[in-house]
Amino acid sequence: MLDTVIRNATLPDGRRGMDIAIRAGRIAEVAPGIDAEAGEVIDAGGMLVTPPFVDSHFHMDATLSLGMPRLNRSGTLLEGIALWGELKPQLTVEAMVERALRYCDLAVTRGLLSIRSHVDVSDPTLRTAEAMIEVRETVAPYIDLQLVAFPQDGYLRAPGAVELMDRALDMGLDVVGGIPHFERTMGEGAESVAALCRIAAERGLRVDLHCDESDDPMSRHVETLARETLRHGLQGRVAGSHLTSMHSMDNYYVSKLLPLMAEAEIAAIANPLINITLQGRHDTYPKRRGLTRVPEMMAAGLTVAFGHDCVMDPWYPLGSGDMLEVASMGLHVAQMTSRTGMREVFDTVTVNAANAIGLEGYGLAPGCHADLVILQASDPVEAIRLRATRLVVMRRGRVVARSAPAVADLFVEGRPGSVDPASYAPKAAEVAGD
Ligand SMILES: [Zn+2]
């Protein structure tokens, strides 16, 4: 006897007419026409069923704080950091927890069930860490929240940051963070990368650094990160976030850098909404896009994920918890408009993101957690195009959110009475291939 069976699903890999059997919070079987009794039957109606969305880069401690204490007028990363510095002394654990929980409510309805959040640990009170640990425990039944100890004001630059990193990790934060491009010099940035990788190796933790988040073509921190990853045997456990300087780097240098990153098995986490917004602010025209070299890194065999980074905070006034919006922006900025390219972009907010942050039991294979989303879209490309409605969101075999299909009534003579945006899927494009 099964707990649930989902009938007539289309899977991200293109298989259609599949049933998904669920027992005890796990996926028991994925096959056409599963013939077994089930407590509940959910008809996917041929729509796409995907593992949940994963946000591999976020700032939960700052989310929904837009306008406190004022807005970012220049729109730059540096004013955002300064503004956050003004806000920090006013933050309370209670208010941070409340904002974070509200965001997590929204995330669940968007089918976003795993989030890696950087947590600013540069204030000696470590209120941010205390608040986010509380949130991690509270949301554990419905969201996997990973916490990165992030020295926002610089690991070597800010007084006390070295000791605060240790204290934050002792409190139970999960991942070692850093911000080498914000240290005083390129040399001190490199020194911080070496020190942070050493800490991770000693503590058996993963690393995720804000790395080369500038338009400086000479920024070299991801190279150092790859070297230190190899030195400490951290292959497959390290992520470089942003990597925007790679947009502006010399092509010859990048041709040497990418194989080094592949050797170190570094995951690259780009944040398209934020990168296109914050980078290029010192340019006149032409104005650089700032997004790192996504298709080139994929071709080099690197795991590339996209993060949301910010939702209504000192760095970004918009955002909606919708990883399909993130995917859509990344797809456009990286010009990944081939059929293959668009399907690869869907992976950046699902399976690649899960791999980048080391999630276990993720996917639709038998034995995986029964975490999934039924989308009002016939395939991954349509999901991105439509930013499709999340019809059903399931966590450990239990439905945790539902949305009504987006179907509009139409009152135009001689035309149909309703319009379903998901009915426009271009059959010919699939037949025509890539
Ligand atoms: Zn960030």
Automatic annotation (TrEMBL):
Keywords per UniProt: Hydrolase, Metal-binding
Gene3D superfamilies reported for this sequence: Metal-dependent hydrolases (3.20.20.140), Urease, subunit C, domain 1 (2.30.40.10)
Record-annotated Amidohydrolase domain positions: 40-400
The keyword Metal-binding is annotated on this UniProt entry: yes
Record-linked InterPro entries: Amidohydro_3, Metal-dep_hydrolase_composite, Metal_Hydrolase, Metallo-hydrolase_Enzymes
GO biological process: cytosine catabolic process
Pfam families: Amidohydro_3 (PF07969)
GO molecular function terms attached to this record: cytosine deaminase activity; isoguanine deaminase activity; metal ion binding
UniProt keyword Metal-binding, yes or no: yes
UniProt name for this protein: Cytosine deaminase
